[in-house]
# Entry
Amino acid sequence: MTTWTNWSRSVETHPVRVEHPASTADVQRIVREAGGLKVKAVGASHSFTPIAATDGVLLRLDRMNRIVAHDSATSRVRVQAGISLHDLNPQLKARGLALPNLGDVDPQSVAGAVSTGTHGTGGKLFGISAAVVAVQLVTADGDVLEIDESHPWFGAARVTLGALGIVTEVTLQCVPAFLLHAREEPMALPDVLDQVDALVDDNDHFEFYWFPHTEKALTKRNNRVAEGTERRPVGRFRHWLDDEFLSNTVFEGLNRVVARKRSWIPRVNSVAASVLSAREYVDDSFNVFVSSRTVRFRESEFAMPREALPLVLAELKAWFGAGHENISFPIEVRFTAADDVWLSTGHERDNCYVAVHQYWRSDYQAYFAAAQDIFTAHEGRPHWGKLHTLDASYFAERYARFGDFVGVRDELDPHRTFTNDYLDQVLG
# Structure
């Protein structure tokens, strides 16, 4: 029997078999031949939740990794669902194109990133799903369904959770390739919060990382540059020192130590935040958005109304101050604008996103449960691919189109070919 685990080692399942389709036709055949078994597709296995887990037939989309069409007049690109963002970004650049926004890592498949609502940051920008203009699905009957902007289910198709069918191709609305000027610098957390509206509104992309048990934060401001500006990427040594050695090698070593010596964490965090230095550079957008992340961890992230941020962070700070637990990973804070995607965390609401992390060898449950209580008290919507314990009754109150999405699911997959325990939990 095959064993499948996700990247964070938080989920393990035993599929009856694993298939590696190379085309939509292959997916149709596999679905039709499933013989009553559940069928799930997986891309990079990067979701922390069991959203892609199955004990039935697991489709690994790694062979569905091509750009299949490019319309230079509209800047639209049609891709197979399994192509990773890591592979797609330089291929878009070669065509003079880019995605308008990205998250901070890039191993995810396009289908996985779209289907779970992966987002980046930018007060006037949106998650990756907002760039989707058409989706091709293989339905439970093995038929091919094309959903574009004119289709009544378009709002459901851009974040599907894998519940409506197997996403086989996606058409993306790209923008001309662009460079970003990156400015990274430490700031005191109170100063960040005092200026947060201006920092978000006056920069194309703004985010910050707060080091628990300290008043210290690392800020990142990324802005598009004027045409004709030349690339000035981070030097090879500085990239190795900051992004590989310190952020990954040293951080991994420290987390191995403090997993056993948790009383050391506040001091380690203070020292780590104190050695941060400012840097500026100009590079291709995807090189600025994406960071190397080799330290394995678990993550929970919620979207909340932007105005809730000071209270949310104050309540997390109070929880740390009460001595419940020492946390070594920085807390990541990002921002996006409201969109119209039915199950997007940004549906009809400008958001702040607060993400909490725990080293994979450490127990995350008490910390994430406390954070979830804080987030849900402020109308939090969890990222579909990141850890939470909420169910359909909660989401029915948080998403105005939740019932409409479930209705589409009932029509497309009445016998629940594409379900699993996680989807039964969150969709009912």
About this structure: The longest strand covers residues 179-188.
